[in-house]
Amino acid sequence: xxxxxxxxxxxxxPRIKKYWQFYLLFxxxxxxxxxxxxxxxxxxxxxxxxxxxxxxxxxxGLDQFKKxxxxxxxxxxxxxxxxxxxxxxPFWTAFGNTIVFSVIKLLLNTGxxxxxxxxxxxxxxxxxxxxxxxxxxxxxFMSWVVTSSVFTLLLAVGQSGLVNNTLKSLGxxxxxxxxxxxxxxxxxxxxxxxVWRETGWQTIIFMxxxxxxxxxxYEAASMDGAGRVKKIQYVTLPALGNTIITVLxxxxxxxxxxxxxxxxLQNDAVRNATNVLQTLVYYEAFNSGAVPDLxxxxxxxxxxxxxxxxxxxVCNIASKKVRGRGIM
Length: 328
What we know:
2 domains, two-stranded antiparallel sheet, mainly alpha, 69% helix, MetI-like fold, globular
């Protein structure tokens, strides 16, 4: 059969001539991919150089990566080792934040999306269900800049700070708290804002799964004496299990792509404690206060890409185990 298909397949030239309209439409897409995805890959070479603006790149090999990891020569003095570790600290802080922020955000968003989906599925009134769905979807369509501005006003210390004023009126606090100026409270509100903005959109996937559950399963559970809670426990959650795992796997491959949500909420008071890899690259390249070493920024970006590639391969294997097909 395969030999027959191979014989019937025409050479590329005649196919292009016959379907030239399709190939013509493909040219802009091909040009976009080459210009914005493949040509920039030439810049990887700068990760192995010391490249400052206005100066010629100087090849330094793996020195930029040694600087990232705080690696020094075996015969280095204790002071040199301490300096190397001090220089590497921002990188390790940003790397740890990238992993922690992404994983916690993923688990919280997925968990709340599952709970809200079950809640919506249990609603009897179809009209009220649709209204509720619409309301919780809306935050997703707000840009992160607008979202940041809204919550900055809500959490402000002055009279416009609704959160502080409400807590003071309830007697829970005596003085206003600048939540976004303290690393601990900043992280808490970062997760809250992400849940508020993204959870509703993720419910679409789980609601689609819930609508596909056989009603006969619920009827059988009712005949066995199961109440609403037991139906959720033994019918709804098992039906969602495969979808939950799939969502976690697909999103786990993207945990290194964290930038905008962190960047728009940052300020000078918490920047060093809340940097992720992409914000660190930005500040090192454009806002370091000195002549930036672009080679160092490229090295950080290259390391992030390699970790992202490794995660993608791991998730691809996990996806094949769970779904029977990969994500690539």
